[in-house]
């Protein structure tokens, strides 16, 4: 008997609200800023925690900037832009 190989059906695309990373980036960066303020007010002597929270917030801002840069490049139609970022 001949075996038939069928590929499984493709999964449906994610809803736009689940595929958009902006809320996760903004909330994560906001939580790092909140943690920085809490450590600054209550645990000022723990300088390692201060720098860790400040670094997390800074990296979140940098990451959001890179994401916006890539999304605008995709909208312009740049050949080097990542795929799938256009709204």
Structural features:
63% helix; mainly alpha; 87 residues
How far do the termini sit from each other? Answer: 48 Å
Rg value: 21 Å
What's the order of the H and E elements?
A: HHH
Count of individual helical segments: 3
- Note the main sheet: none
Q: Which structural class is indicated by helix and strand composition?
A: mainly alpha
Q: Determine the strand fraction and express it as a percent band.
A: under 5%
Globular, elongated, flat, extended or rod-shaped: what is the shape? elongated
Please characterize this protein's 3D structure.
With 87 residues, this protein is an all-alpha fold. Helix 2 packs antiparallel against helix 3. The relative contact order is 0.10. The mean pLDDT is 87.
Could you write a compact summary of the structure shown?
The chain has helices at 16-19, 22-42, 47-76. By secondary structure, the chain is mainly α.
Set down the secondary structure blueprint.
Layout: H1 16-19, H2 22-42, H3 47-76
Helix pairs in contact: 2-3
